[in-house]
Design a protein that fits this description.
The strands form 3 sheets. Strands 10-11-12-9-8-13-14 form a 7-stranded parallel sheet, with helices on both faces. The longest helix is centred in the N-terminal third of the chain and has 23 residues. 45% of the residues lie in helices and 18% in strands. It has 17 helices and 15 strands. It is α/β, with parallel strands linked by helices. The protein has 2 domains: 222 residues, Aldehyde Dehydrogenase, Chain A, domain 1; 186 residues, Aldehyde Dehydrogenase, Chain A, domain 2. Helix 1 packs parallel to helix 7, helix 2 packs across helix 6 and helix 4 runs parallel beside helix 5. The radius of gyration is 28 Å and the shape is globular.
């Protein structure tokens, strides 16, 4: 008798976890040279299939821009790979001859990857390369709306690894997606650690599974254009970032904060470069189309063009518009567009100075972006340094934030999994890489002799001190007081 869908999905999760454990146990003894060869083969296969996987992702999810998804796949296959290939993750990774310490990397085991519908194939490529580089196996639980493209990416990577000498099952993916299958995998005894990229509820569930986890929270990234900024370049960066893959990268800008002395220049430049400003009535219509009253994103409007959003909202949008800009008088309740919007819509605020920008940015971050990222455009280094105090772990300066946060246009670690630190409920505050997925053993040689005789003398002295009578202490105090009077 055939099992019903939920039961068969649970069974698939169990089978994949067991197979991944077997693959890990065989792979964990792999030498560094063999590991590097296998990871290189995986990266090459991902690069060769970047277009096909991007096309599958767009067709299955209907989100985003094909050319941009190709770039995200290539970023994971090339930029991330070129970074992690230099990381020491097998055997002895550090040796301190002075302290006589030897550090040895040990794989964590079976990694579970929870992947989103917004960046499905690129996230699979990134997490698989990092996991395998660290000597682990990985099982993915994809978003149901991106199950086929995610499974295809995992199969391409696994096949390449096997061809290069790895055991089968090193990279795998649930094909019968269900909430029950994800829950089963999170709690399976063979799974050692979880990487959760997705909605807040899924990330919280991962942290509640009783295992170590790396979660990626929401962004709601404010961007401040300060009065000394190169306005033309700032606007170009923001539009480039927010229109990339139709605004689905969580590190993309969500709210523009304009410094009042240059507000008119900023508005004019946005209009010149493809920013379409909404009037009050249009703001209400777009708000209702894109977000719930509580600020939750309506799934059918994720990763859409301004023209598509305008059609659904009943708002006319020019064919050359690249982003929609909604001037807001407040934030939070009554202002849905002040929340994170994974689409081509930006909120717009005006402040009198950088002090007000600080206060407003904190309020916006508290609504769902604590620990993630903050962006600003300025030439005043003193003011830039003031923003280090903001409750985020990535302060991005004079760069498109979607590209800066992932390490494409900045010196940050290239990554598609961005930690938000304890402030954002994450276990790391930096961009996740291969070295986060190893345990480290430490071999420590003795460098200092221990002489218990010293402690015995101290104990005798302490005992003698404890035996002093109160009248002796009083006499010492009197002598000290007499000396003070004399002086």
């Amino acid at each position: 008798m055939a099992l019903d869908y939920d039961l068969s999905s649970i069974q698939e999760a169990r089978d994949l976890a067991r197979k991944a454990k077997q693959a890990y146990e065989e792979f964990s003894d792999c030498c560094e040279k063999s590991n590097d060869r296998i990871v290189a083969a995986m990266a090459q296969a991902a690069e060769e299939n970047a277009l096909n996987l991007a096309r599958m992702a767009v067709e299955e999810t209907t989100y985003g821009v094909l050319a941009h998804k190709v770039l995200k796949n290539l970023f994971a296959a090339k930029d991330v790979y070129n970074h992690i290939k230099h990381e020491k993750t097998v055997g002895v990774i550090r040796e301190d001859k002075e302290k006589r310490l030897v550090e040895v990397a040990v794989p964590v085991g079976v990694v579970m990857g929870i992947t989103p519908t917004t960046n499905p194939t690129s996230t699979v490529i990134h997490n698989a390369l990092c996991a395998v580089k660290a000597g682990n196996s990985i099982v993915f639980s994809p978003h149901p709306n991106a199950a086929k493209c995610s499974a295809a990416a995992a199969k391409i990577l696994n096949d390449a690894a096997v061809k290069a000498g790895a055991p089968d099952g090193l990279v795998s993916c649930i094909t019968k997606t269900s909430r029950q299958a994800t829950d089963e995998l999170m709690h399976h005894p063979d799974v050692s650690v979880i990487i959760a990229t997705g909605g807040s509820a899924m990330v919280k569930a991962a942290y509640s599974a009783g295992k170590p986890a790396f979660g990626v929270g929401p962004g709601n990234v404010p961007v401040f254009i300060e009065r000394t900024a190169d306005v033309k370049q700032a606007v170009k960066d923001i539009i480039t970032s927010k229109s990339f893959d139709n605004g689905m990268i969580c590190a993309s800008e969500q709210a523009i904060i304009a410094d009042e002395p240059i507000k008119d220049e900023i508005v004019a430049e946005f209009k010149r470069q493809g920013g379409h400003f909404l009037n009050d009535d249009e703001v209400r219509k777009v708000s209702a189309a894109v977000l719930t009253a509580q600020g939750g994103m309506i799934a059918s409007l994720v990763g859409r063009t301004p023209q598509y959003i305008g059609e659904k909202a009943g708002v006319p949008v020019p064919p050359d518009a690249k982003v929609l800009i909604a001037p807001l008088a407040g934030f939070g309740k009554g202002y849905p567009l002040s929340h994170e919007k994974l689409t081509t819509v930006l909120a717009f605020y005006t402040v009198k100075n950088w002090h007000e920008a600080c206060e407003l940015s904190i309020e916006l971050l508290r609504m769902g972006g604590i620990g993630h990222s903050f962006s600003m455009h300025s030439q005043d280094d003193r003011i830039i340094r003031e923003f280090i105090r903001k409750p985020v772990f990535r302060i991005l300066v004079n760069t498109p934030s979607a590209f800066g946060a992932i390490g494409y246009s900045t010196g940050l670690t290239p990554s598609l999994t961005l930690g938000c630190g304890t402030w954002g409920g994450s276990s790391i505050s930096e961009n996740l890489s291969a070295h986060h997925l190893v345990n480290v053993k430490r071999l420590a040689y003795g460098i200092r002799k221990v002489d218990l005789g010293d402690s015995e003398r101290i104990n005798r002295s302490a005992s003698a001190s404890a035996a002093v009578r109160p009248d002796e202490i009083a006499e010492v105090v009197k002598q000290v007081l007499r000396q003070l009077k004399v002086s």
